[in-house]
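Before the break, one more example. Copy the sequence into your notebook; we will annotate it together after we see the structure.
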Amino acid sequence: MGPTQPTQPTQRNHGLDGLRGLAALSVALGHCVEQVTGLALWGRSLRDFPSMPAADIVMRLFSTLFPSDAAVMVFFVLSGHVLWASFQRKNLRFFADLPDYACARIYRLFPLTIVAALPLGLLANAPAAELVRNMLLLSTSLNNVLWSLQVEVVASFALFALWGLTRGAGRKLLLALVLAFGVTPLFRGVGPVVFFPAFILGASISSLPARFWRNRWVLGGGIVVLLFSNILTGHGGITRCFEMIGATVLVGAVANGALGFLRWRVPLFLGAISYPFYLTHVIGLILAQPFLDKLPFGSAYAMIAARAMTSIPLTIPLAWALHVLVEDPVLRARPRLRSRSGPVG
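Here is what the structure looks like once it is written out:
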């Protein structure tokens, strides 16, 4: 297998934007469920069902409709796919284009992280030093979702280094994937290593023909694997591998035109604000809590619905404001350190 050729069009793939928005919403809804049910239920799997009350089994199955873990895996695969397609399209060179790439990554990831940390720091009355550590992604004490951005920062640079080593050669990319999976057991708990295979899988999407990704059976099987692996096998390393494969199938299908509803207005709007929404939905949950404390709840499902219906409407305007006032202006203003290189990521 020779070097892979770019298969992505130069124009933006709006289906992937819609998928990004749907994944961000899924994370927020998953956290609404988790706040009510707790981590204990989240950690249960099929082998625990015989000893569980029927109501808990139903709730555990219900939680698969809002798969925050699977959604984050989609983010990782999607990031690997989009970045790799950019490397291919621009034929980037590792050393020559590294300064521009680093600048693009910094401008893309850090300004919103810094701004979003400010209200969280005020709400938590955090010490200045701890606030700065969260702003720089050195700590996740104020916002647990920052762990995924820590992974994103390290893995995106590792992916660029992999591009420099392979130049898109399919066999080298496959070897890198095997090695990445092989070393994972040696680095349990080290997020950038554990989840790096997801980025490589995203990069590998263009190595397979579009007809494979458009196959309905492949797409259906991938979605089932993505959503239900944790029910069958729990949340261990094997499950992560299955979720990576399922997320790759989903991203590959959308990248090649499947799931047209992701191009509708609502998914596209959510996609446009997905990054600030992802960062700030915890603020929506915090602001909603005083209202939730005053409501009488008859069931856990009502508590979940109340959290979703109060926190998400509070988060969307904040995310939109950050998108318009911070995200877009920063990305437009970032310097191009090499004139031939456009925005990356």
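The CA atoms of residues 81 and 118 lie 31 Å apart. The chain has a mean pLDDT of 91. Try to locate both features in your own notes.
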